[in-house]
């Protein structure tokens, strides 16, 4: 009975011993699992294990359990130790370990959101944080929010783009970075974005094919663009010469197209376009649209002074394509021999004069060419009869005059 006071004395004092040891890391990152393990030389003698942090009790086990911090936080940093009660023959003895200091570091700082404009009115929103080099292979998920809307949820990219930012994109933007398991998740500060509408300016009309030159029957695209201007833009196409309104398109883009599926001569004229995003209308310069058509098959006519072609006459060969864009080059042929050519810069065709000799019977033809494909006329057969003598001089040698 006298032993009891002694036992109680021993228990209260505690003994730091080599018998009991503590095993745990000194450094961890938040989100890590940290195991604090206490064990003794002869574990079977341990009846209770008590874990402490900064002197306060964490847990008491009646077996050999270790203490686990499953998702470490910086607040778990501190001094850890444990205490074991073991049976020493018939008395209970208390052993205490040394203290081990645990530092739980931030895996990454809260992200910072940056909004950078890229060409035109598009922006890149990026959510940046930093991983320590010894954890650089940690996979992260990025979520982006505007006010209460989720823009991107758990994406693998730290950036996203808003293609054409408009007034409706104004608001508070923020992002969240998390590990894939969501053991660590951090939000960044909110940043306010106010999208102001930029009035339209630098309205420009161009065509495809370029320069307003179109081929009859082919499509022509009228492209209206603005150098600056945001939001929904209403584009309109007009003809300056006729006052005609050709079309209107409203889109959230700095560029719009209007197509004429098959151009004809009626489409020749002066065009312009306008753009308006509600902050004043702006107009482009005028553009001439010219429609080039290939020459049609020309018609050859032969004109002689009398009713028949007689040696000594000056014959006029007239060639005319009724359709086709000038300038047209007319070529004249006699029995497939090239006689000469004439260019016509306006309609009405072209003429060529030939001084007829007896050898000039045969087939005549002409060709019209404006660079879009040459067209040959039908042949005309001519027979030159007799001879023409003026004051006893008869013309018998071939020769031609220029027109
Ligand atoms: C990671 O590296 C840093 C710097 O070298 C070091 O201080 C830290 O203890 C390491 N952390 C872990 C958990 O290994
Ligand atoms: C120890 O006991 C606790 C309950 O007190 C139990 O949850 C745990 O699994 C036990 N551990 C071992 C290693 O037996
Ligand atoms: C991302 O995934 C986690 C876990 O699956 C979920 O709890 C969280 O709500 C998700 N985040 C968003 C923005 O959807
Ligand atoms: C466009 O055509 C008009 C006549 O229709 C002419 O006066 C003007 O010089 C032309 N402009 C260009 C750039 O060719
Ligand atoms: C002229 O054309 C006709 C009919 O196309 C043909 O029969 C004749 O042989 C041609 N004459 C010459 C000289 O080529």
From TrEMBL:
<feature type="domain" description="Ig-like">
    <location>
        <begin position="5"/>
        <end position="103"/>
    </location>
</feature>
<dbReference type="InterPro" id="IPR050488">
    <property type="entry name" value="Ig_Fc_receptor"/>
</dbReference>
<feature type="domain" description="Ig-like">
    <location>
        <begin position="199"/>
        <end position="290"/>
    </location>
</feature>
<dbReference type="Pfam" id="PF00047">
    <property type="entry name" value="ig"/>
</dbReference>
<protein>
    <submittedName>
        <fullName>Fc receptor-like protein 2 isoform X3</fullName>
    </submittedName>
</protein>
<dbReference type="InterPro" id="IPR013783">
    <property type="entry name" value="Ig-like_fold"/>
</dbReference>
<keyword id="KW-0732">Signal</keyword>
<keyword id="KW-1015">Disulfide bond</keyword>
<dbReference type="Pfam" id="PF13895">
    <property type="entry name" value="Ig_2"/>
</dbReference>
<dbReference type="InterPro" id="IPR036179">
    <property type="entry name" value="Ig-like_dom_sf"/>
</dbReference>
<dbReference type="InterPro" id="IPR013151">
    <property type="entry name" value="Immunoglobulin_dom"/>
</dbReference>
<feature type="domain" description="Ig-like">
    <location>
        <begin position="298"/>
        <end position="383"/>
    </location>
</feature>
<dbReference type="InterPro" id="IPR003599">
    <property type="entry name" value="Ig_sub"/>
</dbReference>
<keyword id="KW-0393">Immunoglobulin domain</keyword>
<dbReference type="InterPro" id="IPR003598">
    <property type="entry name" value="Ig_sub2"/>
</dbReference>
<feature type="signal peptide">
    <location>
        <begin position="1"/>
        <end position="17"/>
    </location>
</feature>
<dbReference type="InterPro" id="IPR007110">
    <property type="entry name" value="Ig-like_dom"/>
</dbReference>
<feature type="domain" description="Ig-like">
    <location>
        <begin position="110"/>
        <end position="185"/>
    </location>
</feature>
